[in-house]
Amino acid sequence: MATSSRFQVYVLAFCATLLIQSGCYGHSVHQRKHAALFIFGDSTFDVGNNNYINTSTFFQANFFPYGETFFSDPTGRFSDGRLIPDIIAEYANLPMIPPYLQPGFDSYTNGVNFASSGAGVLAETHQGFVLDLKTQLGYFKNVEKQLRHRLGEAEAHTLLSEAVYLIAIGSGDYSFPFIANSSLFESHSHEEYVGMVIGNLTNVIKEIYEKGGRKFGIKGIGNLGCIPGLRIVKPGNTSTCNEEVNALSKLHNRVLAKALLELKGQLQDFVYSNPDLYSYANDVVHNPSKYGFKEAKMACCGSGPLRRISSCGGKRGMTEYELCDNVTDYVYFDSGHPTERYNQKLSKLWWSHTPDVTGRYINLKELFEV
Prior knowledge:
Layout: H1 2-18, E1 37-41, H2 84-91, E2 111-113, H3 133-151, H4 153-162, E3 164-168, H5 171-179, H6 184-187, H7 190-210, E4 215-219, E5 232-234, E6 238-240, H8 243-266, E7 271-273, H9 277-286, E8 301-302, E9 322-323, H10 340-352, H11 355-358, H12 364-369
Parallel strand pairs: 1-2, 1-3, 3-4, 4-7
Antiparallel strand pairs: 5-6, 8-9
Helix pairs in contact: 2-10, 3-4, 3-7, 7-8
């Protein structure tokens, strides 16, 4: 009897020491070391979903020189290297989160990325070429059902409620009318249009909440009118930011902040991170040397004035393009997307910066730990 008791003590000690995930004495010890990460958005967050849809090369980046800095090969990311979700995943001790449409990928316990380059909150933005936010939500609902089926209700509930839902979308909704020379703003005031975008976005957030989501990281829009592709080029190859587009960006951020505050009052246990990245981005563009950059107006890759024409890679109707010598000097890799180095700075800011930038919102590190 004494021998049997000692044996039980040894086995229990062995289990405790190794933190065995499968059964000890028939009991399962599930210790999730990190929250899952579910990602929604546009080209700033798309890690390759558009590689697998029937679309235009204007919405794809699966060719040289995209991806060269970090991956050595193109992956579908609109940058020379990693995007913000890749870097946030590393901070959160997660592997890189794969795209939902990647063939053979169906293990969602660390999360999944639904983002699609060119996507908007509104279905009309680049309709037929991208996975709009509503479509991404539909994919998430499929994943939620699979998780409940595979893990059981209790464990799926825990995973979904502890997960972080990272969202970056809206830039396409505001840039598309300008790029397409649309008459949209002749029939809608800026306030009406932004109201439509935020209304649709908050409806999606509510639907994710209804499926179990509680922790949201929602990125506002940066100084969109200062990207090379939307800058106003003047004689003598000088340029200024497009202040009409910037005004829309700022209005979007103000209305979004108010909507999120209202959601927090309406939805139990709803927590979110929504830092003021506009002010930071604006300072980077106007004072690049302060942040270690040499060039904040011209893109590293493209053609024409400021390399603002989206010809990077030579597969978008123009075969010739220019590529800079030192990408780390640049804020923008192509006409509309940041370099990995700038993504690193934005990610670090969102992850851990003090309240003078994140304001009344918690940072992402705190969001993961809630």
